[in-house]
Amino acid sequence: MNKEAIIAIPADPTDRDDGAVSAGGLERGLVGRRIRKLRTRLGLSQVEFAERYAIPLANIRRYEIGRTLPPAAVRAYLRVIEAEPEHVAQLLQAA
Question: Which of 59 and 7 is assigned the larger pLDDT?
Answer without folding.
Answer: 59
